[in-house]
Automatic annotation (TrEMBL):
Name listed for the protein in its UniProt record: ATP-dependent DNA ligase
InterPro entries: LigD_pol_dom, MtLigD_Pol-like, NHEJ_LigD
Keyword line: Ligase
Cross-referenced Pfam families: LigD_Prim-Pol (PF21686)
Lineage, broadest ranks: Bacteria, Bacillati, Actinomycetota, Actinomycetes, Kitasatosporales
Keyword Ligase: yes
GO terms assigned for molecular function: ligase activity
CDD domains: MtLigD_Pol_like (cd04863)
Length: 293
């Protein structure tokens, strides 16, 4: 029988706690749950009121990996759900609103992916995101160069950008925005990606064409489409090590000379939160939201 724990009055069965989910380090499911409990205070505000897609990897990254968008079978009735628009019709998805819901979702073993809008108003985006994806031999070091250019370009339009690692090999750039539809934000993001390619043709690519990717940084502007989701801040990723999509300072971005300098695993996040708190907290403050030109 799976052990039962109680979280804020909710009873949760936890399964396979000794299972190794990250083969390179021996990181277990119990450690995954401990990680999410540790970062819950900073993670939950970035999940709250956003429909969550789960990229599940219950047997680790070498096992079956699959997306779950609809409410999974067996979801407790106390987990909040919401009907959200989809191109093929409305769908009911999970909202991770509190610690019990987070720990229930973490027990599924999943990455957390969210939209750039809240369920109360899916017609208005409240974030813009650029997913900077390096094509080898380019690395996150090259992503940092592109991120600095985009940061400065966004600042010209009065939009303040923040950075986090993707938890894989790239970098995410985020900013709070208001008053625009996902389509409008996506168009604006594409325009900046095209500008970046013109400014740095040796380094930047705004098209997804695989054959053009080697040695360049693909600026994926399409993540702003209403239907798309992006890995949430602080989520673990399905990799050989327990890598995290971790917020980083602009000083770290500017000084990055090696990919290892911006590779953070679950054990790194406790000390980073002590030192920095939530570096993405301004994204949650409406007063920091910019308006698209």
């Amino acid at each position: 029988m799976a052990p039962i724990t109680e979280v804020e009055g909710r009873r949760l069965p936890l399964s396979n706690l000794e299972k190794v989910l990250y083969p390179a380090t021996g990181f277990t499911k119990a450690e995954v749950l401990h990680y999410y409990a540790t970062v819950a205070e900073v993670l939950l505000p970035h999940l709250r009121d956003r429909a969550v897609s789960f990229l599940r990897y219950p047997d680790g990254p070498d096992g079956q990996v699959f997306f779950t968008k609809n409410v999974p079978p067996g979801t407790p009735d106390w987990v909040t759900t919401a009907e959200v628009p989809r191109s093929d019709g409305p769908s009911r998805m999970v909202l991770v609103q509190d610690l019990p819901s987070l720990m229930w979702a973490a027990n599924l073993v999943a990455e957390f992916h969210v939209h750039q809008w809240r369920v109360q108003n899916p017609e208005e985006a409240d974030r813009i995101v650029f997913d900077l994806d390096p094509g080898p031999p380019a690395t996150i070091v090259h992503c940092c160069e592109v991120a600095r250019w985009l940061r400065d370009r966004l600042a010209e339009d009065g939009i303040e950008a923040y950075a986090k690692t993707s938890g894989s090999k790239g970098l995410h750039l985020l900013a709070a925005v208001r008053g625009a539809s996902p389509e409008r934000v996506s168009d604006y993001a594409k325009g900046l990606a095209v500008e970046a390619e013109k400014a740095m043709p040796h380094l930047v690519l705004h098209r997804m064409t695989r054959s053009l990717r080697p040695g360049k940084v693909f600026v994926d502007w399409s993540q702003n489409a209403a239907r798309k989701t992006t890995a949430a801040p602080y989520t673990l990723r399905a990799r050989q090590e327990p890598l995290v999509s971790a917020p980083v300072t602009w000083e770290e971005v500017e000084e990055c000379r090696s990919p290892d300098l911006l590779a953070f695993t679950a054990p790194d996040l406790g000390p980073r939160l002590t030192d920095y708190g939530d570096l993405l907290a301004p994204l949650l403050d409406p007063e920091h939201a910019g308006t698209l030109p």
